[in-house]
DNA repair exonuclease (Desulfomonile tiedjei), 419 residues
Amino acid sequence: MRFIHAADIHLGRQFSGLSRSSPSLGKLFLRAGYSAWDRIVNRAIDLQVDFITLGGDTFDASNPSVRPRVAFRDGVARLRHAGIPVYAVLGNHDPLRTFPDLLRSLPGLFLFGPEPEAKEITQGAVIQGVSFENSAERANLARKIQRISGTELAIGLLHTNASGNANHGDYAPCTLDDLRAGGMDVWCLGHVHSPSVLSDAPLILYSGSAQGALAKENGPRGCYLVSVDVCEQASWEFLPTAPVRWENLRLDISDCGCPEDVLDKAEQACSELVSGVPDLDAIVVRISLLGKLSSNGLSDMTKDEEFRSLLSERLENLQVPVFPAELVDCGSLGKEPDLSLDGEGFLADLMRIADRYVKDPELRSELADRIHGELAKINRKYYEAMFDSEIWKQNPVLAEGHVNHAAELIARMFLEQRS
Ligand SMILES: [Mn+2]
């Protein structure tokens, strides 16, 4: 059995910040948002998958306007004609309470309600899920979903913040252990916008947003193709479907003599970014200039209108157009920061500390206690449930999970910077 899991499509997203600074880029992203959904539908039809799961935030607005509604309806209709049903839960952006009546009973769509439900897809195989009733869902919905005895294949579908991802609202929070305790074979999640596989067995994954909306949602975006069968471990493949991609480009210009050299270097680097990437309409790039020009041709390239428009023209004419949304001068840094474990200075010290915490369980547990104390100081009431001293003592795994996650995030952040 093969299916596609997508989430956080955010149909109708306006990209208003970007539209203000660059109306043409705003329009590009608006179109890309719809086209990302169309491409997911196309891939499902091309691959003749058995069904699609949608993990919530299909719509950006809780009361979507006519264009996103039509786009969704048309996609579901195309899938239905191809014999592919859609199973969807709703998230914080498109909760049930305000979900359009017109779409609730769309042919070809099975929409999960506010109480956990199980829907049989074939004999012995079920999808179990639950939708957000309201946007600020604080309940642990994962704990409400337990494998029904006798099912041969169980797929969980949920919009949730698993493991306290700090970049996203803490809606329907749960831990990885909560998900594992449900006994499902596969968990298809929505809410976290980065595509990520949290566990192989059971397979637990976030598809991520269908189209990166901000510079921090960089890299490929799309959906997962999941293959799953009774008695077999589920396997997965990421399918990049977003027509527009955000990238961060760090350009060392210390070997450039003049602005002309910078243009050439930027063009070369951007041409490498787009080469060999299929089905891409455009790349939007944030360029950080590192180092200083050896001879001074221009006092500040990032503020020079002529330089900027020349750079835009050159990049837009590449085989796939590249749009420089931002050009930042990091010249004062002089050179790349030293993030090696044996380096010198503040960042290297931080790297070593993060490394120690990642490797040493005792240190982690000490840090857990300190985090507990600090968080309780900030907002005792909010963290009471999570960090209630009894729960904390009884559930060191929960505490350790949070600290592990934090340490990993810090380490990964620096390692990514370093690569
Ligand atoms: Mn979302």
About this structure: Residues 346-418 form one domain. The pocket of manganese (II) ion is lined by residues 8, 57, 93, 191, 193 (CB under 6 Å). The longest helix spans residues 23-46. The two ends are 38 Å apart (CA to CA).
